[in-house]
Amino acid sequence: MSAQGSQPPHRSGVGMIPGLDSAPLPQPLPQPLPQPLPQQVPPPGSAERWPWLQHLRRQPPFALEPWLEAIESERLQLQLDLLVALAPRLDDAATERLLAWWFASTEVDTALLEPLSQRRTAGSARLLRQALERQPSPEQQELVLPLLGHQRQPADFPLLAGHALDPQPAAVRRAALEGLCRGLSAWPAPPLRRILAQLAEDLDPRLAAAAVDTLARVPAARPALLALRRRPLAAPVAQRLERRLKALRAAPLLLVVHGRAGGTIPSALLELAQELERRRGAPVRLQALTAASLPDPAALASGPGQPPLTLVPLFLLPGGHVRHDLPAIAAHWRRQGPLRRLPFLGAWPAWQRALAAEVAALAPAPVRLLHHPLEGPLPGRFLAHLERISGARVQAAPYSSDQLDSLMQSLAGPAIPLALAANRLTDTLKDRLGPPLLARERCYAVLLTHLEALP
Length: 455
Description:
Elements: H1 49-57, H2 65-72, H3 80-86, H4 92-104, H5 113-116, H6 122-133, H7 138-151, H8 157-165, H9 170-182, H10 189-199, H11 205-217, H12 221-228, H13 235-247, E1 253-257, H14 267-280, E2 284-288, H15 297-300, E3 309-313, H16 320-334, E4 339-341, H17 349-362, E5 368-371, H18 377-390, E6 393-396, H19 401-410, E7 415-417, H20 424-428, H21 430-433, H22 441-452
Parallel strand pairs: 1-2, 1-3, 3-4, 5-6, 5-7
Helix pairs in contact: 1-3, 4-6, 6-7, 7-9, 8-9, 9-11, 10-11, 11-12, 11-13, 17-22
């Protein structure tokens, strides 16, 4: 036979894949174990252990009771790799049972506590709480406190806050603060902000810095962070605070005001807008109802992921401008992009308290709050409310000069104009009414502080 004839026949045809003859045959898939048992687990350090545990994770449901009993009786050593393999099969009851076993054992791997505490159950929280009640060592408290916060049980907030504030090892206090961080959404926001602000002044720099970071994650964080500026913070903590404030980008503000004839805006309002823009690091624009043109939308646009434009109506009473003009203005700006609209200034409780303080400063003489005439039942109800809040008599001032003179002659005591900035009323009765509200230190400070703190 020739050499050519000794060669295997050449095979070709449609669908043939080059190299197919040399490819290894596929290996059969591992067959399910009939019933995995604890005694079948290869010992630690064995080359067979990891493949066996991977195979265990792929098994169909099997009875867990033999495994739990073997762990509790210490016939099977529970190590982290075995716990990872069993974890997807552990229900709440099994998890709490193993967590109770961990706390009852004298010699057990501390790395097991974190995965055993990941399921949020009332039983797990109770076991962690009981462990703290037994006065454990500082090292054990460091382990347990963050995990208790992870359980997010609202009743545990005072316990975590107490451990963070109490004089004890710094590592324990930091662990308690980490617990507060892990359960952040479960705690009441006002007391949480107070505690974090207090911790920001702590002598432990790591604790103080972490408190500032945590406070920045609480909803509506800007006002609380701004308030920290007035506290005696350590220099590194103060620098961290400024970085957090810079990261919380403030929304552009549109302050809607009445304005004067021809669209002129009083200088007090212009100065307020300039100071706000400087403090917030974001655009602040004024829109006057009497102006013929609107602010440039491009100057107030917010990019993707940035807070929307905030519209602030600087009106003191629910007159026609608030009820009719503002909805149209808001509709216009919503067509430009996302918009957040605040209530008119006179409805803010903080502003009403500031007005009441201005009235109280003039007591015991009877005080009048003078405003332009209003119509309709809503303004009437609001004015009655304002009288109850401020303790002053609210009275409409007529438009004509003769009637104004007659009114002022009839007043037995001081009067305050319900006007933010200079207008026709304050111009006519400057000597009798005193300055408008923005020219009064208390009112200006309240308005500036609240506008600065807006998101």
